[in-house]
Amino acid sequence: MAVFTRVSEADIAAWLANYSLGTLLELQGIPAGIENTNYFVTTTNGRFVLTLFEKLTADDLPFFLNLMAHLARHGIPCPCPVADKQNRFLGELNGKPACIVSRLSGKSVTQPTTAQCAAVGAMLGQMHSAGQSFGEQMLNPRGSAWRAEAAQQVRRFLPPQDAVLLAGEVEFHATHPLAGIPRGVIHADLFRDNVLMEGERVGGLIDFYFACTGKLLYDVAITVNDWCMTPEGKLDAGHTRALLNAYHAARPLTAAEADLWPIALRVAALRFWISRLYDLHLPREGDIVHAHNPDQFKRILQNHIASPNPPWL
Ligand SMILES: Nc1ncnc2c1ncn2[C@@H]1O[C@H](COP(=O)(O)OP(=O)(O)OP(=O)(O)O)[C@@H](O)[C@H]1O
Ligand SMILES: N[C@@H](CCO)C(=O)O
């Protein structure tokens, strides 16, 4: 249930007076999601999504809101923040930082087709290209320092062979960083549940709150590790090639990126193995329990280590 902070029709009607969005027609809580409170808001001017941020603070948010506005301006179907009458994207509602963004159409899929993988690859390539002209920077909060620190903290919960695998991988990536390849704005969490599909086309990319500045190939690896994975934790070669070829047509991959592809897949798997272990064993106070299974990413990581020639273009 992702309505942590209640908003009444009277609350939103008063809040909307700060905007040029017309008057409220309908307010509906959105049950999906685990981080923020989300409502669908329909006004006389259209369909929107209201988000109340439960953890991110008003200091964190301008990067994400400005990024979404930038990408939307470039034609990427991502939520576009609406400015209030003082021309600000960020407001406050019921004691929480809040914003209202455009509502996109489509539904997330769980078993993507080859054509849908290609559509996501193309959209990711376009997003990376459009992101090149975004002027703001954000360090990756789930980068190498975080990996080392979080791995240290979860180590004591693991059986010995998993602790060895984890420590070995953290060390490997600390000494084999993804160097000398293109950087830019990355989504960093483009899993299936963060893409709204309309048949074979992408209706929307959502949930930009892990976005940061990083290696573009790492973002491709995060996306492939979710979209192109079989239930056994191995890459589906057809889906992977479809996604990569469509990406390449939008933002050409380089020879240096080809060389680093196996390592990018490993470090992307490691990041989610660690975060899932951390959320399982060390949940933050007030976190609701959710069912992301760390073992799935352990298996993916082990399979990547065992197959050093993953599908490429
Ligand atoms: N701009 C949007 N347009 C259409 N639907 C949206 C939009 N933003 C959110 N949604 C819907 O709301 C649901 C929850 O949103 P989201 O995934 O951003 O939740 P969250 O709690 O912020 O993040 P998390 O995925 O980390 O739990 C999505 O699955 C989607 O159905
Ligand atoms: N996409 C993440 C959770 C949200 O960041 C995962 O599946 O572990």
UniProtKB/TrEMBL annotation:
<comment type="pathway">
    <text>Amino-acid biosynthesis; L-threonine biosynthesis; L-threonine from L-aspartate: step 4/5.</text>
</comment>
<dbReference type="GO" id="GO:0005524">
    <property type="term" value="F:ATP binding"/>
</dbReference>
<keyword id="KW-0808">Transferase</keyword>
<dbReference type="InterPro" id="IPR002575">
    <property type="entry name" value="Aminoglycoside_PTrfase"/>
</dbReference>
<dbReference type="InterPro" id="IPR050249">
    <property type="entry name" value="Pseudomonas-type_ThrB"/>
</dbReference>
<dbReference type="InterPro" id="IPR005280">
    <property type="entry name" value="Homoserine_kinase_II"/>
</dbReference>
<keyword id="KW-0067">ATP-binding</keyword>
<dbReference type="GO" id="GO:0004413">
    <property type="term" value="F:homoserine kinase activity"/>
</dbReference>
<keyword id="KW-0028">Amino-acid biosynthesis</keyword>
<protein>
    <recommendedName>
        <fullName>Homoserine kinase</fullName>
        <ecNumber>2.7.1.39</ecNumber>
    </recommendedName>
</protein>
<dbReference type="InterPro" id="IPR011009">
    <property type="entry name" value="Kinase-like_dom_sf"/>
</dbReference>
<keyword id="KW-0791">Threonine biosynthesis</keyword>
<dbReference type="Pfam" id="PF01636">
    <property type="entry name" value="APH"/>
</dbReference>
<keyword id="KW-0547">Nucleotide-binding</keyword>
<keyword id="KW-0418">Kinase</keyword>
<feature type="domain" description="Aminoglycoside phosphotransferase">
    <location>
        <begin position="27"/>
        <end position="253"/>
    </location>
</feature>
<dbReference type="GO" id="GO:0009088">
    <property type="term" value="P:threonine biosynthetic process"/>
</dbReference>
<comment type="similarity">
    <text>Belongs to the pseudomonas-type ThrB family.</text>
</comment>
